[in-house]
Amino acid sequence: FESAGGTVFIGCNTGLFRSTDNGKTWKQVQSGGWAMKMVESNGVLMATCQQGIIRSTDNGENWDVVISEGGVGIEVEPIKGGFAAITFNTASETRRVRTSYDGGKTWQAIDAGLPASLSIASIIQVGDDLFCSHPNGIFRSSDKGKTWKLLRPSPGGKVFKLSVSGNVIYAVLRNEGC
To answer: Is the separation of the CB atoms in 16 and 32 below 8 Å?
Structure first.
């Protein structure tokens, strides 16, 4: 991942590494298990990791866990005015969908209208609508996650990996899970 300021990050099974000189030298800036997907919005970096969702406000020098719940971070995406995230709680074996509109300081659950599932896989925003991939199919919320409507059923328990380019949503079927 390359930040807006040109800092380069690599996530691996032992944490996050950062380079401020185009990859000539690297410094480990987060440890304690794997770190994966990373996003940035308004100078705030967010990443999924083994402990949940982590956040940095100093260009990746320091990281804080902002969503933990005894589980792992599955997905994090920038949305208008904030971030959306999916986490998995290993103790209760549940996935939660949340949003933050204060740079990742606080998070609100927005999954009350979605059927409970171990395999909620993706969340994106197009326009003002949120779209969530679930084993039942693709759901849309036009009210920031207060209510959800099933738009496209999923065949055979598979989930869609959602991506967006402009106003076009791409949905690729895959087996349940991350």
So the answer is: no
* pTM confidence score: 0.91
- For 8-17, the pLDDT digits (tens) are 999 999 999 9
Tokens in use for 18?
Answer: 């950062």
Distance between CA atoms of 76 and 82, rounded to whole angstroms? 11
Strand partners, 98: 85, 109
Q: Which amino acid is at 75?
A: E
Amino acid at 10: I
Q: Give me the residues paired with residue 28 across strands.
A: 17
Report whether 45 contacts 38 (CB < 8 A): yes
Report the distance separating Cα 85 and Cα 27, nearest Å.
26
Q: Round to the nearest angstrom and report the end-to-end CA distance of the chain.
A: 19
Distance set, CA 7 to CA 10, 43, 55, 137 (Å): 10, 12, 15, 37
Please tell me whether residue 3 adopts helix, strand or coil conformation: coil
The whole-angstrom separation of Cα 99 and Cα 111 is 10
**Is the separation of the CB atoms in 8 and 2 below 8 Å?**
yes
CB 106 within 8 A of CB 100: yes
